[in-house]
Structure formats: structure tokens, C-alpha cells
Design brief:
The structure is a single chain. The protein is mainly beta. It has a single domain (about 5-125), classed as Thrombin, subunit H (Beta Barrel), CATH 2.40.10. The chain contains one helix and six strands, in the order αββββββ. Strands 1-2-3-6-5-4 form a six-stranded antiparallel β-barrel. A hairpin with a 5-residue loop joins strand 1 and strand 2. The chain starts with a helix and ends with a strand.
Length: about 120
């Protein structure tokens, strides 16, 4: 039996208010033609929303003579957020202003429409 819509909407609102502590900007690549016939590509802000950045240690792997860990990061969004592969996510007022997170995968089918999870990689400008 599916969860009633009113209950899902209440859970979405409560999770956004209590759990999603980061204000983030979602940027998407867009291209334009310039006056000389060339193509100009840049990232533009498509939305600003609340989200939560989570860190998970993925595994340890041997590198040379030592061991290093490979980390994974995820953003949790409300279900109605349009987030896509290769979007960039920036935390508003991040102390490291050159840091952004590149979306490498989106999982939006396992939580009955309450959350949307995006796997991201850390990058710097």
C-alpha cells in the first residue's frame, strides 16, 4: 500500500527543516554562441535549495608502500529538486570558496519520494 500524499508532504517539509542544514546552489552547464560564431560554455545557477552533505569512508586501498582511504560524499536533497549528472553543487558561504561538488550519480527511486541522493566528487576551481 503506498504512503498517502499528505503524509509524504509532511515528511518532506519536516526533513527539509530539521535535517537539511546546508544552503546550496545547483549549477548546470549551458552553452551560448558568441558574436564570432564560437561557443561559450559556463555554469549558471539553476536553483538554490537546502541539502545535507554526508561523508562516508568508502574503503582503504594500498598506494605504493602505504594505505590510503578513498572517501565518498553524498548530498541529500528534497525529492522535488532537479539535480542531474554532471551538475555542480556549491555550499553557500563555504569557507573554501573554490570548492565545488561534481554530481557523478543520482539515486531517486528508493525512498518513496521523500529524498533524492546525489553522489558527488570534491573538486576545486
Amino acid at each position: 500500500m503506498p504512503t498517502p500524499t499528505t503524509l509524504l508532504n509532511t515528511l518532506r517539509a519536516a526533513s527539509a527543516y530539521y535535517m537539511m542544514s546546508d544552503n546550496v546552489k545547483i549549477l548546470r552547464s549551458e552553452s551560448w554562441n558568441d558574436e564570432y560564431g564560437g561557443v561559450y560554455t559556463d555554469y549558471t545557477v539553476v536553483s538554490t535549495t537546502k541539502a545535507r552533505l554526508t561523508h562516508r569512508q568508502y574503503q582503504e586501498e594500498p598506494i605504493g608502500g602505504g594505505i590510503t582511504n578513498k572517501d565518498e560524499y553524498y548530498f541529500i536533497f528534497e525529492d522535488n529538486i532537479d539535480i542531474r549528472f554532471e551538475d555542480r553543487v556549491q555550499i553557500v558561504n563555504d569557507p573554501n570558496s573554490t570548492r565545488y561538488f561534481l554530481v557523478v550519480g543520482v539515486d531517486d527511486v528508493v525512498t518513496q519520494g521523500i529524498f533524492k541522493t546525489a553522489k558527488v566528487e570534491v573538486n576545486y576551481n
